[in-house]
């Protein structure tokens, strides 16, 4: 039986249990914010079945090193149960106002 994936456009900060299939279309360099710890930006895209919807992603502190080889640009992955958080309005895109945080929970 083929697994049922939840489209990225249906994910929000109230989503608890899910599985989605994504492609990493951007993987930025790790950097440090003046007010926050080290982070690395990601951008995920649905597969074509889900109309190519995108959502931002992030890794923080020790998770950057932990997932550096596990998440490659242009790689396709199944994600499940990663934390979804609301993006502050000044950083939200027109296509999505949520971000996937990749950590040990994912």
Q: Secondary structure elements and their pairing?
A:
Blueprint: E1 19-27, E2 31-32, E3 38-46, E4 54-60, H1 62-67, E5 76-80, E6 83-86, E7 98-101
Parallel strand pairs: 4-7
Antiparallel strand pairs: 1-3, 1-5, 2-3, 3-4, 6-7
- Assembly type: single chain
* Total strands: 7
Please indicate the percent range of residues in DSSP E strands (runs of 2 or more): 35-45%
- Taking Cα atoms only, what radius of gyration do you get, to the nearest Å? 13 Å
Helix content range of the residues, please? Answer: under 10%
- Main β-sheet, in a few words? 7 strands, mixed
Distance between the termini: 23 Å
Taken from the alpha-carbon principal axes, the silhouette is globular
Q: What does this entry look like structurally?
A:
With 106 residues, the chain is mainly β. It has one domain (8-101): Nucleic acid-binding proteins (OB fold (Dihydrolipoamide Acetyltransferase, E2P)). It has one helix at residues 62-67, and strands at residues 19-27, 31-32, 38-46, 54-60, 76-80, 83-86, 98-101. Strands 1, 2, 3, 4, 5, 6 and 7 form a seven-stranded mixed beta sheet that branches. The longest helix is centred in the middle third of the chain and has 6 residues, at 62-67. The radius of gyration is 13 Å and the shape is globular.
Gist of the model:
This protein is mostly beta strands and 106 residues long.
